[in-house]
Amino acid sequence: MPSSEILGYIGNDYQRIHVNFESVERSKSLSNLYFIKGKTVVSGNECDFEGTVTIEQFRKFRHMSYGLDSMYSAAGIKAQGVAIGSYKFSENPNQKHVGVFQGVMTLWWYLDKNGEIQFFDIDKHSDRFKNNQYVGTWSEYGKENTRVCNWGEFRIPFSGDLDWGAGGFSVNPKYYSKGWEAFDKY
Q: Quick check: pTM over 0.85?
């Protein structure tokens, strides 16, 4: 489950999408398969979805990070890396404006001193920190057109001029009317 609010957009005009994972369950028969349930909200339209994440690669980094000023250097971290996979989430066809999300995802992890896998948040104080990144498309049921749809924690992958923040996610004011009004801090 995500450890913070997910930031995301759908379409070339960067319309805000809220993605909430409500449950994540590992398959009992396939160790790399996870069943996901959640909700999306775009312009007040809320939809339920169900689907899967399949972890296809599990990579270990050669060089580890110990955070700002090496604050975790004595924490006994054993390894760090990234999980790379694919996802497909189908919205409830009985709801309005629904379709299928699919694409690729990445999730950074680390092994703690007990050998337990943890969500990588060691560098969360760095300017460009991100995790739990999803890059893909959304296709409305019964239609051929697809729309780009990307989301993630702390930053959004491939967000063009939507995110113009240097030290953290910050919305370009020209997109406030696309569901990003809450980011108007002026």
A: yes
